[in-house]
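Form 7-S
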Amino acid sequence: MRSAWASSVRRMRRLNLALATLAAGIALATPAFAYRPFDGTDGDVADVGEFELEMGPAQFLSTPEGHYIVAPATVLNLGVARGLELVIDFKDFLGLQPVVGQPRMRILDTDVFLKSVLRRGTLQGETGVSIALEAGPLLPEIGGTKGFGAQANLITSYRWAPLSLHLNTSAALTRDHQLDGFVGLILEGPHDWAIRPVGEVYTEHEFGNDTTYSALAGAIWQVRDGLALDAAVRYGAQPGNNAVEVRFGLTWGVALWHHEETLK
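Output:
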């Protein structure tokens, strides 16, 4: 009897650990909008015919339940019309140690968005705030949550000579069919600097679960037109599930075809 009871306790402990790790991975998987190295984005889109690859070749994520390599974290952007771009993104999470009941490799944050500029402003070389809307479905994850969801993010940006600000306000129906809210602010140093300091703070709350608070600090190096490198450190705080993430990556853009307005 004692042996059977002890075996049952061990199984329950392993199950609880697996569930806790899976929950932590999903809860700490950050929102995936299109602007490295941030979790939010800006109020601009790719030019018509321009393809942008945003990639983190290998990022490190540490949580109390385990350590993960995110390789790669990928965002694909394509300008499909004036003021409109298609966004596809995903992250490949690789566990550095096996966890019972959890696959070693998971592809999370899988989604497809359309992003549209609602108001042209300083980010487009005009006056006033730039406003954009990014929305679309959250697709089933591989090794994660199998359901569908939806998300919409309203972005308000303004650029001064020494500072750019991007406010993200997002609402989502998660793959678990829970309501989720996200508010974040991105800060960038002078845009004409080759290497500019950047930062981001955000809070995210999924109804029925705990609230996540996050802070990021880093830099973007504009190597040349169409190529930028970035590096940053993010700290996420959630009751019992704090996380530290080291990010580095690149943004590369190329014109696949030319449009009359782009040439002008």
